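One-letter codes give the sequence; the integers encode the fold. A sample entry reads:
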Amino acid sequence: MSAPFFTLNNGSKIPAVGLGCWKLANETAADMVYSAIKQGYRLFDGACDYGNEKEVGEGINRAIKDGLVKREELFVVSKLWNNFHAKENVKKAFKKQLSDLNLDYLDLYLIHFPIAFKFVPFEEKYPPGFYCGDGDKFHYEDVPIIETWRALEELVDEGLVKSIGVSNFRGALLQDLIRAARIKPASLQIEHHPYLQQNELVEYAQSQGIVVTGYSSFGPLSFIELENEIAAGTTPLFENKVITSIAAKHGKSPAQVLLRWATQRGIAIIPKSNNPQRLSANLNVNDFDLTKEDFAEIAKLDKNLRFNDPWTWDKIPTFV
């Protein structure tokens, strides 16, 4: 069963289920993307910061060359990293990413975080990660979000990207951007799982015609290997009794329940897996519906528990 689509506010359609490219190993990323396309995936969510865009692009282009898919059938997403927020650096960063992916355009380009680090030249370190040109010390630039957004709007004007949006934004910042934007954000990507449901933010974004994409659908699982202390001390969602009980009732896996919970809320999902069987299972999660009772039980799991928080980087108040 092919995944359904959500319609962006500019008429473009984004698949409801895609493959997240965060932490895809460089040595296997091209093969994983190729395999995912073979299985029916059409949405690929990447970023400069993931450090694997050349390999992701290799997998995409191999699939196109082999006739598995046409470019226009794919929905390729990437993100602008924090070091490139100044207007004069946005297009440079974007073109670097486009070149790495070996594509002519992107379907969606997001501001990764509402954080402006000091610019780092590509030849000095790429992707820069948390590096700001001074060892492990953080340095920032005074770049307002609207300046960065104007540069993204120019990318749309030039036909380099079809849609633009934001990631890791709170409601007030999103509202402010909408007021100032010439091109309205088409998508908002947020951490989203039963321990962090963000109901009000989801409702607000959807009321504005902005499609929400949820990352880290499996909660702490993505962060345990990063030695995240909060994640390490949290019951994995795959072992949560509410989730396992609902999964048993529907004859599905806990992963499928978590993913269907999101898509049934109108939220696109981008789970990652290195297992071909799980890739297939993750893609086909829209052939059953959770009940009102299921939703009510999952609603009780909300702890406002965030695993990806820039406050832990350098006391950056993104979510305070």
